[in-house]
Q: What sequence folds into this?
């Protein structure tokens, strides 16, 4: 899950960040959180990054949060928005934009928790995830957040944009969890890559959009490359993935 915080107050954004980190830790949610104190920097980032949830201060330096939300809705209609503000003045305009919530500063952790919990309830209707045991707890991992998975020293390693999740599990027991999702490709022994994260490939490796390289099994190279080519062709021609 990718979250953006936009607020030109350094103190307010740090408070919000600490609340969200606490929420994610308590509920065993892995999230990538980005902080922006400048709205134009956020809008540039939104052209490259897809956000699941955005916390948006209404009173910004160069434009209003309402105007930012209008622009965000044009490019990322599925993104959920929670406004944060020192006034209730813009509540009507916020909800006309189908904002998920409207938090008036100073808000408490409990108020923030209620808002994010509402987001989770909405997102769970559409999100696909797997659940693995990490230590003593079970952790949910969004399918779209998995870059690749591999196996090391009896542990499955699930690599995401924000962290690596390790679960004591055999690869044979883990692999069926990803079989329903067409974007995963078995590229070498005990490694499955999410093809949505592949930038390119050469004679030996897949090159991911984060710069990492994953080897392509020599014995199955032709079949692996063909499977990737078929996936890209299907995607370009309107195919859908879960």
A:
């Amino acid at each position: 899950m990718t979250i953006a915080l936009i607020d030109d107050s350094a103190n307010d954004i740090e408070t919000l960040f600490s609340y969200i980190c606490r929420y994610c830790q308590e509920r065993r949610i892995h999230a990538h959180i980005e902080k922006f104190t400048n709205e134009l920097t956020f809008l540039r980032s939104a052209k490259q990054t897809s956000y699941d949830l955005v916390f948006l201060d209404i009173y910004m330096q160069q434009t209003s949060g309402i105007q930012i939300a209008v622009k965000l809705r044009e490019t990322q209609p599925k993104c959920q928005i929670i406004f944060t503000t020192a006034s209730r003045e813009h509540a009507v305009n916020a909800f006309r934009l189908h904002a998920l919530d409207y938090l008036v500063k100073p808000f408490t952790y409990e108020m923030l928790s209620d808002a994010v919990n509402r987001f989770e309830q909405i997102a769970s209707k559409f999100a696909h995830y797997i659940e693995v045991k990490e230590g003593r707890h079970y952790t949910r991992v969004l399918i779209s957040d998995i870059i690749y998975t591999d196996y090391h020293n009896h542990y499955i390693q699930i690599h995401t944009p924000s962290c690596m999740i390790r679960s004591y599990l055999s690869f044979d027991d883990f692999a069926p969890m990803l079989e329903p999702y067409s974007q995963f490709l078995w590229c070498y022994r005990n490694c499955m890559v999410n093809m949505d994260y592949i930038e390119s490939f050469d004679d030996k490796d897949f090159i991911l959009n984060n710069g990492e390289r994953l080897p392509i099994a020599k014995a199955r190279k032709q079949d692996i490359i063909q499977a990737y080519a078929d996936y890209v062709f299907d995607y370009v021609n309107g195919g859908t993935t879960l």
About this structure: The domain at 2-123 is CATH 3.40.50.2300 (Rossmann fold). The radius of gyration is 20 Å. The chain is about 30% helix and 30% strand. The mean pLDDT is 88.
